[in-house]
Amino acid sequence: MKFTTANADKAFDILREADKPAMVAAIVIGRNEGERLVACLTSLQGQAAPIVYVDSGSTDGSITAASRLGAQVLQLDTSIPFTAARARNTGLQHLLDQGHGEGLVQFVDGDCQIEPAWIDTARAALAADPQLGVVAGRRRERFPEASIYNRLCDTEWDTPVGPAMAVGGDMMARIEALAAIGGYRDDMIAGEEPEMCLRLRQSGMTIRRLDVPMTLHDADMHRFGQWWRRARRAGHAFAEGSWLHRSGVEPFWRRETRRALIWALVIPALILMAALLIGPWALLALLVYPLQVARMARREGSDGDGRLRAVFLMLSKFPEAMGISEFHLRRLLGRKAGLIEYK
């Protein structure tokens, strides 16, 4: 993506002009979100302008609904693989082309709804700290009781407040700060936001999570296969992010990648080899898995949800390892990765 704003030095000079009123635009991305998109766009009415909706090949009437609600609708070229990063960059470039090189932008996924007080709270936080490039609040699941997978998502969003390394897809950011680092990486099929936040922090900007409601999310996960694909996508993100920044000082996602490979590939392979060479009793080493789950359960909490999280955290290493392997196999073969969707 080629941003047409001024160079980085000029962009960061603009950041210091904190006395100017901040324009808040919104970029919503989605594909076949249906009524979730309607709720998302409705929650932004009167709080952000312009509202830009970037559609990735919807066939459910999303484009018509967004236009009816007053959003500026952009449709991605279907001949180029869809990614959330590409959709966000397209919306950002549209704002820049319209002359919105300054001010703030609220990014939100089409399956989320903005909480009423969030826009004003985030704008105030950014106005108070010119070095703050990105701010986010609390994302929660709309229907955590609908399935164990929704409950797992709800606990996943419960991350520490204060200075952050990354904040997720929903966030408010300074337009000029994103333009200065080149936005997102268009070709990343997952994990594009933490990777962008890494480059933003390296540029000297800071990131913060506030302890206030920001968005309601609808994971809409009701089957084990959906959860598995989502974890596989996370593994792909770990592998791609750690590979892209393999020479960097910060160990970006190296630990997550290493854990998945050790628990899902290395340990099972060693146990299998031991069973073949020594005897079936070596399979008793598989007890290391329930022991590790018990250890994680103590960390996650002694209640039912803590034990549930521990089980799925261990189980997730296997689809994550699949995603890691897929990334490196495609990389060696020179093939582009396709989207890994769970809805």
Q: State the low-pLDDT regions, or none.
A: 4-21
Might you state the CATH topology name of the largest domain? Spore Coat Polysaccharide Biosynthesis Protein SpsA, Chain A
Terminal CA distance reads 28 Å
How many β-strand stretches? 9
The biggest sheet amounts to: 9 strands, mixed
**Assembly status:** single chain
Kindly state the mean pLDDT as a whole number? Answer: 91
Entry summary:
The chain is an alpha/beta fold and 343 residues long. The chain is 48% helix and 15% strand. It has 13 helices and 9 strands.
Describe this structure in words.
The protein is of the alpha/beta class. It has 2 domains: 8-222, Alpha-Beta Complex (Spore Coat Polysaccharide Biosynthesis Protein SpsA, Chain A), CATH 3.90.550.10; 224-343, no CATH class. It contains 13 helices and 9 strands. It has helices spanning 8-15, 35-44, 62-68, 84-97, 118-128, 148-156, 175-181, 192-202, 224-244, 254-277, 288-300, 304-315, 317-333, and strands at 24-30, 51-55, 72-75, 104-109, 112-114, 132-141, 162-163, 171-174, 206-217. Strands 1, 2, 3, 4, 5, 6, 7, 8 and 9 form a 9-stranded mixed sheet that branches. Helix 2 (35-44) links the parallel strand 1 (24-30) and strand 2. Helix 9 crosses helix 13, helix 10 crosses helix 13 and helix 11 packs across helix 12. The longest helix has 24 residues, at 254-277. The protein starts with 7 loop residues before the first helix and ends in a 10-residue tail after the last helix. 41% of the residues are buried.
